[in-house]
Design goal:
This protein is an alpha+beta fold. The protein has nine helices and 15 strands. Keywords: Cytoplasm, Hydrolase, Protease, Thiol protease, Ubl conjugation pathway.
């Protein structure tokens, strides 16, 4: 019996028809032809799970795999050898936010017997994932959270389409899985859904609070300083390790946000933010001479080229 299977690949959406008694290898051949790819991985279902297309598994019939009516995501895999990295001295450096001294990143909270502190994240283009991941207790969270976000986007094509993402979902998620791609509002909204937490993001420049995932029971608080994210935490003593921080609060606990705003106001007075509306950036990828103004232009350049290393151009 012929069955239809939908495909989502980098070259668009399509359908294939195949006999359900046919082996998986026949479907793989059809996908290779439709997608115009030689090397790829396949995912299907919700949540997305991998379809094993290794040589021994390709003898299994389509019927046994229960693929009738499924949508299969075709993700290209790069099997070409990678060029050697440039010498260490020529490696581009990620943009660094303005520094703050340790004694300026904490405010006393005597009513609760401790301090509200700013935990400053590394400047490695994964600060948003590290800030949130640390708040929920994940070790080395960046890769895990990136993969979860990418899988969520591909599992919700009606909600996260090219109009919302600014590019085709498969290309967007391929970039987002890379460790040097910045995360932002879209990723925060998705992580809020995945972990059932409100994420309150305080903008240092404007002191605006953006809430992702309202009507949740608990929240975490992060700080946005233009192109960088840090985490807010409570500690009983400034000498205590970050592992014993308190980083989740009931959403009814408005005092936490009030105290976090007080800390953000101190950071604002120190100008601990980058004004992304008018600062001039240059791409620091070798051989690229791109120069643009503001984070929006940088994001557009990243989408078009895959370049994600930027530095502020000092104009004197």
């Amino acid at each position: 019996m012929l069955i239809r299977i939908s495909l989502r690949a980098p070259n668009g959406q399509s359908r294939v028809e195949i006999d359900d008694e046919a082996p998986l290898r026949d479907l793989v051949s059809l996908i290779r032809e439709k997608a115009g790819l030689n090397n790829f991985s396949l995912k299907y279902g919700y949540p997305l799970k991998s379809l094993d297309i290794s040589e021994p598994s390709q003898c299994v019939s389509i019927r046994e795999l229960n693929l009738k009516g499924e949508t299969i995501v075709v993700a290209p895999t790069d099997t070409q050898p990678q060029p050697a990295p440039p010498p260490v001295e020529s490696q581009p450096k990620p943009f660094k936010p303005k520094a703050v001294e340790p004694d300026e990143t904490a405010i006393s909270w005597p009513e609760r017997g401790g301090y509200l502190v700013l935990r400053v994240m590394p400047d490695d283009n994964s600060c948003m994932f590290t800030a949130f991941g640390g708040a929920i207790g994940l070790e080395n969270p960046s890769k895990k959270l990136r993969d979860q976000v990418a899988d969520y986007i591909l599992s919700h094509p009606e909600k996260y389409n090219a109009a919302i993402l600014g590019e085709q979902p498969l290309r967007y998620t391929t970039r987002m899985r890379q460790m040097d791609t910045w995360g932002g509002a879209i990723e925060l909204s998705i992580l809020s859904d995945i972990y059932n937490l409100e994420i309150s993001s305080i903008d240092v420049k404007t002191l605006r609070i953006d809430r992702f995932g309202e009507n949740k029971s608990n929240r975490v608080v992060i700080v946005y300083s233009g192109i960088h994210y840090d985490r807010i935490a409570f500690t009983m003593d400034l000498s205590h390790p970050v592992e014993v921080d308190e980083t989740r609060w009931p959403v009814e606990d408005s005092e936490v946000l009030e105290k976090a705003l007080e800390l953000a106001q101190r950071l604002q007075q120190m100008h601990y933010y980058t004004d992304t509306t008018d600062f001039v950036l240059q791409c620091e990828m070798p051989g690229c001479n791109w120069i643009g103004q503001g984070a929006k232009e940088a994001s557009k350049h990243e989408r078009e080229t895959g370049h994600s290393q930027f530095g502020e151009l000092q104009i004197t």
